[in-house]
Amino acid sequence: MKLSWFIARRISGAGSGKLTSAGNIIAVLSVAISILVIIVSISVSRGFRREVDAKMMAFNGDVTISAMPPTGTNDFTSEQLSLPPLSAREDILKLPFVTSFQAISYRPGILKTEDNLQGVILKGIDSSFDWSFYSLNLREGTLPDSDKNDWVVISQRLADMMKLKCGEGANFYFVGEHVKVRRLRISAIYSAQLENFDKTYVLAPRSVVNSLNGWSEDRSSAYIVNFSNHSLSDYYIRKNQIAEAVYSHDDIEQYLRISGSYEDMSNLVDWLRLLDMNVLIILVLMVAVAAFNMISCVLIILFENISSIGILKSLGMRNGGIKKIFLAKSSGIVLLGLAIGTVVAIVLCLAEGSLKFIRLNPDNYFINYVPIDISWWSIVGANILSFTVIMLILLIPCHFISRIQPSQTIKIK
Question: Mean pLDDT, to the nearest integer, of 120-127?
Answer without folding.
Answer: 88
